[in-house]
Amino acid sequence: MFSSAWKAVHTSLASSLRLRVLALTAAIFVAVAVPAWLSFTYVVDATILRLGTLFAEKQVLYDRSRGLEALTREVGLAETVARSPAVIEWARDEADPAKRSRGLAELEHYREAFKDHSYFFVVNGSGNYYFNDAADAYAGTQLRYTLSADNPRDGWYFTTLKRSGCQLNVDHDDVLAVTKVWINCVVEAGGQKLGIIGTGLDLSTFINQVVNSDQQGVESLFVDRTGAVQATRDARKIDFHSLTKKQDAKRTVYQMVDDKTGRARLDDLFAQAHDERANVAADFIRIDGHRMLVGVGYLDKLDWYNVTLMDVDRIIDRSLFLPIGALLFSVMAVAVGLVTWLFKRRVLDRLALAEASLQRVERGDFDLAPADGSGDEIGRLSRALNRMAAAVRDHTGALETAVRERTRQLERIAFVDALSGIANRRGFSESFAQALRRARRTGDRHGILLLDIDRFKSINDDHGHHAGDAIVAEAARRVAATLREGDICGRWGGDEFIVLVSDCDKVGLQAAALRVLNAFRHQPIAIGEGAALDLTVSIGGHQIERGESLETAVALADTALYAAKSGGRNRFAISEPQRAAGGFKVA
């Protein structure tokens, strides 16, 4: 019985190549499955460790980028206003009404630029604390209270005054009833410390925008040089009033570590991140009873560290790895495919490739597979077919290239202004229509700015149209340089330009108008032979309402432009909504 069965199997194998391929596949499966089983566990563990380390580095860099983006701009603005001559003169002679008026006007100007739209200023000579917020609630009454060295709550001021430059401090102001990440910059002149000036970012907003993360198993913290926690999603861990506390009274990241060895390793990570500021230091440390991957980066511009705690087992789910059965099945599939490929390749696949190449040529597709390099009949046929397809492809490609180039030239003539290099009226109108279609899907609001060069006709009359053309081209370049991603500008006609400000509210529209004004103010334009002209522009703006056409928006912006011209030029005016009483805000 057994002999008959074996004879039948042998006969089948001898007469069927398919069965012989299957038998070979089974042998390959046995040879590969055993080492695959042994290596699987090692591969999973090594992969988890490597991926976790890479994730730690990327997460720390990401958190550092978010933290720097949120705070560096504010620190830079605070440093700038601390060097303002008007502020310094006022601090030296606080009682002078004129200097006080100029100093407050300077602070109010910078208040609009700060993200939080608030500022504070402490005059060292008197201890007077000036403050105004985003609602302009303290207009005319910016003097809120007077600091005292005897008041422990004012210790932040006297601690900061001993230093130079800018310091960051998370604190709750009991008088103003606000909790913020405060940016404190020392005002100095001639070696004399005149006070402290700065702004703040609302702590909850900073945490929501910078610290919070949807990633499971990840906690981000920002800490100062002593390890005191300045920002994290769990407000109970934040160390408020860090500047005035002793080290043993602070809430630090070190207190979260389970043992001395872990705290020492964390201290090493801090030192490594500080010494190698472009890199990220990471290692495993036990925190709250769990083995956590800790990444540390140094924010040198803020003198903070960003610390990211990662539970690798929660981030990288082991169930995502294929089980052993799936691994063996994959190995078997690869073995079957390999044997089948070896069986078919020498004849069937080569003929199929030649036939497929011929069909592609018939359809006009000349990107054929590489020619068969064999010296037999199939190889020679394949190479001849490829040579024929290459010749036809070259001729066809040359013709298509000429057509594309001509099409690009026609599109440029139709949509780009030849003098300025930006979109002409037709090109801007097309881009405007596309932007509004996207806005209807996304719900974004857009604004429009219409501007022209002040007294441009007199420039043409006095200096000639060649100078006028040069000014138009340079004006287009300067306007385009103020654009954000998604904004569009075009030449509306003559010396008129138009800008679509994407995804903005009224404040954003005003900021865009101010950027354009500043691109011309105090920046003469060369008109040849060493001559240059001081030019300004006037701007009319309009916040586009849902359903408004380009014509309506331009008409309203043009009316606002007229108001800016009437108001003295070198300024902008923003139209109010049509349902309001009417009028314009001119700046």
Structure explained in plain terms:
This protein has 587 residues and is α+β, with helices and mostly antiparallel strands. The chain has three domains: 37-321, PAS domain (Beta-Lactamase); 324-412, no CATH class; 425-586, Reverse transcriptase/Diguanylate cyclase domain (Alpha-Beta Plaits). 50% of the residues lie in helices and 20% in strands. It is built from 15 helices and 19 strands. The chain has a six-stranded antiparallel β-sheet with strand order 3-2-1-6-5-4, with helices on both faces. A six-stranded mixed β-sheet has the order 13-14-12-17-18-19, sandwiched between helices. A five-stranded antiparallel β-sheet has the order 8-7-11-10-9, with helices on both faces. Strand 18 (572-575) and strand 19 form a beta hairpin. The chain is flat. The model has no long low-confidence stretch (mean pLDDT 79).
Tell me what the CATH architecture of the largest domain is: 2-Layer Sandwich
Radius of gyration: 35 Å
CATH homology-level superfamily of the largest domain: PAS domain
Shape field: flat
How would you sum up the major sheet?
Answer: 6 strands, antiparallel
